Amino acid sequence: MSVLFGQLISRLQLSGSPTEREEILAAASNRHVFTCHQLGIILMNLKYSAERETMSQLLAPQIVDPENASSHLLPYIACESCAVRERIVGAVLARGESTIA
Q1: Cα angle 28, 44, 27; round to 5
Q2: pTM of this prediction?
Q3: Would you call 67 exposed, middle or buried from its count of C-beta atoms within 10 A (0-12, 13-18, 19+)?
Q4: What is the C-alpha to C-alpha distance for residues 82 and 99, in angstroms, rounded to an integer?
């Protein structure tokens, strides 16, 4: 794990609210790209299902390997309902399709 990514995860873990976590990730998404594995780690460090869905949509344009969404994200979101898992993976896959078109 890179130092910057580790700092991002630490900030998420220390944050006190969903709004604060969204601000942290919005700022990070303006400057960085992420792998599906990294997105999985980010989602695992969010407290609520709704947050995980929203942040997957926010970060989807910054994912460099959307083709790995199913295999790399599912272990991190296994506790979610099937519908939520589908929406999270779907957001990343849709990003991949939009860059191919």
Answers
A1: 10
A2: 0.90
A3: middle
A4: 26
